[in-house]
Design a protein that fits this description.
It contains eight helices and 32 strands. It has helices at about 1-45, 350-355, 360-370, 425, 490-500, 510-520, 540-555, 565-590, and strands spanning about 55-60, 70, 75-80, 85, 90-95, 95-100, 105-110, 125, 135, 140, 150, 155-160, 165-170, 180-185, 190-195, 200-210, 220, 235-240, 245-255, 260-275, 280-285, 290, 300-305, 310-320, 325-335, 340-345, 380-390, 395-400, 435-440, 445-455, 455-465, 475-480.
C-alpha cells in the first residue's frame, strides 16, 4: 500500500509540474502570439476577398515541407494543403490547396472562400462521410524571420463534395500545438502529442484527445497503464486489430541555461480500447521483432492497403552544444502489426529480361536501346544477400540491390541521363526529412521535404511513386534539380541593406520611424523598390511585394522591433510609394 501510494503521489507531482510548465510557457508565448495575430489577420483579410470557388490548372506546387498530402477517398486524386519554405532569409507559410490527378498526371490549384489560415506541421485526416471530408487540426505559423511562432488549436473540415471549408468550434479540445499526430478511428478522430514553443520556452505533450464525428465534441482520454513520454513527430497509425500504434518521435529538454538536449525516441506502444468499456483505453508497451528503423526523427508515415504501416526517410541528428549535424535517410521500413514485426523494405529492381520479351511498354525501348549501345550505360546494380537474426532467433534473408562502385544516391541527383530511367538506384528519392506521404490504389507517393547541404537548407518539390505490390523500383513523376533553388545568405542581405541602414532610422518614437520610412519611400525613382504595374490596385501590389517592404521596415527598425509595429510601418511605406507612383504617372499623362 505504501509503495503504491508513493507512486501515485509521484505521478500527481509530475502532472502538477507539467501543468505549471504549460502555464509558464503559455504566459510568455501569449505576448509574441499577439504580435503574430496581426500578421495572420492580414493574410485572412486577403483570403476573405475570395467569394467563389476557382479551379486553375497549374504547374506543380513550389517546394515545401511539413505540408499534408492526403488521398481522396472516392477519386483518383491527392490533396496537398499548407506547408512552409525557407530561402535562407525568410520563412514563407502557405494555406494553398492543390489537387493532383493521378490518371491525368496534372495539378490544379483550388481556391475556396474562407480557408484556414496559413500553417505547417498540422495534421490532416480524410474520412469517407458525406462524399469525403478532409479534417485539419492545429499546426503553426512562423514569423517571416522564423523567430516567433503561433500555434493553432483550431479544427477545420473541407467538404470535398461541395468544395467548402468549415471551421468547427468545439470547446474542450487540445491546446495550441504542432507536430502532433491524428488518425481516424471508427467515427472519431484521435489526437496524440505534439509541442508548443515560444522564443524562450517549449513544452512537449503526451495527452490523448478524441473528437466525435457524430456529436462534434472533444473528449480528453485518460488511458490506464504507462504510456509514451511527451513527444512530437511520432508514428501514429491504426492497426488491423483496432489498436493505435505509436512509435518514435522527438523531444528535447533543457540541460542547462540556453542548452537543450534532443531525444530521438525509438520505443513503441499500443493504445488499446478496453472491451466493454466505452471510452476506456489502455497503454501497452511493445517490443516488436525484426529489422527496426535506425534512430531518427522527421520521418514520414503512411498505411498500405494491407494495413501494413510504412515509415520513410527522416534524419538522425548528432547534437553538440554549439552545433547540430544531421544524416538524412531515404530508406523505407514496414511494420506488420499482425505479426508485431519490422521489415526493411527492399526493392527487387527492374525486370530487364522480362521487359525485352514484352512489346508496347515504355520501358522496353529504353532497355533495348541500352543493350544495343554495347553496354555503354551505367553498370548494373549488385545483389547482396544478408542473413539477419532477429531478437526471437528467427533468421531473415534480405536481398539488397547495391549500386556499383562510384554510384551513390546523392542529395543533389542529376536527371538528364536516360540510363536513370532503367536503374532503380537512379530513381530513388534523395535522402530527406519532413516529406509528405500518401497511398492510393497500392501506390506510395512521396512529395517534397528537405535536406541540408552544409549551412544551406534545400527544400524539395519532387514527386515519386512506388508500386507496393511489385516493389520493383521508384518512378519519378516530378523531377527537381536542387541546385536551381534560390538561397539567400544572411551576409549578402546585410551588405545589400547597409546603405539603407546608414540613412538613419534611429529616432525614438514610432512617428519618427514612419516619417523616415516615408521620406525614403518618396524616392519614386529608386530602382530598389518594386515597380507598380499598370492598372494594379494597392491590395494587389501589397500582396505581391509584401515580403520586400517587411524586410525594408525591419532593417530600419532593428531586429528587436515588435512584429506588429514592423508590419504597420511596412504597410505605410508601401502605401506611400504606391500613391506617389500613381500620382506621378497621372501627372505624366497630363
Amino acid at each position: 500500500m505504501g509503495k503504491k501510494g508513493k507512486k501515485e503521489k509521484k505521478g500527481r507531482g509530475a502532472e502538477k509540474t507539467a501543468a505549471k510548465m504549460e502555464k509558464k510557457v503559455s504566459k510568455r508565448s501569449r505576448k509574441e502570439e499577439e504580435d503574430l495575430e496581426a500578421l495572420i489577420a492580414h493574410f485572412q483579410s486577403l483570403d476573405a476577398k475570395k467569394t467563389q470557388v476557382t479551379e486553375t490548372p497549374c504547374s506543380p506546387p513550389s517546394p515545401r515541407l511539413n505540408a499534408s498530402l492526403s488521398a481522396h477517398p472516392e477519386k483518383d486524386e491527392l490533396i496537398l494543403f499548407g506547408g512552409e519554405y525557407f530561402n535562407g532569409q525568410k520563412t514563407f507559410m502557405y494555406n494553398e490547396l492543390y489537387v493532383y490527378s493521378i490518371r491525368k498526371d496534372t495539378w490544379t490549384k483550388v481556391d475556396i472562400p474562407g480557408p484556414p489560415p496559413r500553417r505547417c506541421a498540422h495534421q490532416a485526416v480524410v474520412v469517407p462521410q458525406g462524399g469525403g471530408q478532409l479534417w485539419i487540426f492545429g499546426g503553426e505559423f512562423a514569423s517571416p524571420d522564423g523567430e516567433q511562432f503561433y500555434h493553432y488549436k483550431d479544427l477545420w473540415v473541407l467538404h470535398l463534395a461541395t468544395k467548402t471549408w468549415e471551421q468547427i468550434r468545439s470547446t474542450g479540445g487540445p491546446s495550441g500545438r504542432s507536430g502532433h499526430r491524428m488518425v481516424a478511428w471508427k467515427r472519431q478522430l484521435i489526437l496524440f502529442g505534439g509541442f508548443h514553443e515560444s522564443t524562450r520556452d517549449y513544452i512537449y505533450y503526451s495527452d490523448v484527445y478524441t473528437f466525435s464525428l457524430d456529436t462534434l465534441l472533444w473528449s480528453k482520454l485518460s488511458p490506464s497503464g504507462s504510456g509514451p513520454t511527451p513527444r512530437s513527430g511520432c508514428l501514429m497509425a491504426v492497426t488491423p486489430q483496432g489498436s493505435i500504434a505509436i512509435y518514435g518521435g522527438y523531444s528535447k529538454q533543457r540541460v542547462k541555461k540556453d542548452v537543450d538536449k534532443g531525444t530521438q525516441h525509438s520505443d513503441m506502444f499500443l493504445l488499446k480500447p478496453e472491451e466493454g468499456g466505452e471510452g476506456k483505453w489502455t497503454w501497452t508497451r511493445i517490443n516488436p521483432s525484426g529489422v527496426k528503423p535506425t534512430a531518427r526523427s522527421g520521418f514520414s508515415v503512411a498505411v498500405a492497403p494491407n494495413h501494413q504501416i510504412l515509415l520513410f526517410g527522416g534524419v538522425c541528428d548528432e547534437e553538440e552544444e554549439e552545433s547540430l549535424e544531421g544524416s538524412f535517410f531515404s530508406d523505407l521500413y514496414v511494420y506488420d502489426a499482425s505479426r508485431s514485426r519490422w521489415f526493411a523494405a527492399q526493392l527487387k529492381g527492374p525486370k530487364s529480361e522480362k521487359k525485352k520479351r514484352r512489346r508496347g511498354k515504355v520501358g522496353e525501348h529504353e532497355d533495348a536501346t541500352e543493350q544495343e549501345n554495347g553496354g555503354t550505360s551505367a553498370p548494373e546494380p549488385l545483389e547482396v544477400i544478408k542473413e539477419v537474426v532477429t531478437e526471437d532467433g528467427t533468421v531473415i534473408t534480405i536481398k539488397q540491390m547495391l549500386a556499383p562502385s562510384g554510384l551513390v544516391v546523392r542529395p543533389s541527383p542529376k536527371a538528364e541521363d536516360n540510363a536513370v530511367e532503367t536503374s532503380s538506384t537512379g530513381q530513388e528519392p534523395c535522402p530527406r526529412s519532413n516529406a509528405m506521404l500518401a497511398v492510393k490504389h497500392g501506390l506510395l507517393y512521396v512529395y517534397g521535404g528537405m535536406f541540408e547541404a552544409g549551412d544551406r537548407q534545400v527544400t524539395l518539390s519532387d514527386l515519386y511513386c512506388l508500386d507496393l505490390h511489385k516493389m520493383e523500383e521508384w518512378k519519378t513523376l516530378i523531377e527537381m534539380d536542387p541546385k536551381s533553388q534560390e538561397w539567400l545568405e544572411d551576409t549578402d542581405s546585410d551588405e545589400e541593406d547597409s546603405s539603407s541602414d546608414e540613412e538613419g532610422a534611429e529616432g525614438g518614437g514610432e512617428d519618427q520611424e514612419e516619417d523616415s520610412m516615408e521620406d525614403s519611400a518618396e524616392e519614386g525613382t529608386d530602382p530598389q523598390h518594386p515597380e507598380v504595374a499598370s492598372g494594379e490596385q494597392y491590395e494587389e501590389y501589397l500582396t505581391r511585394t509584401e515580403q520586400y517592404w517587411l524586410k525594408l521596415a525591419r532593417n530600419h527598425m532593428g531586429r528587436d522591433a515588435k512584429e506588429k509595429k514592423v508590419f504597420k510601418v511596412a504597410q505605410a511605406m508601401a502605401k506611400t510609394f504606391f500613391d506617389d507612383t500613381v500620382e506621378d504617372t497621372a501627372q505624366a499623362k497630363h
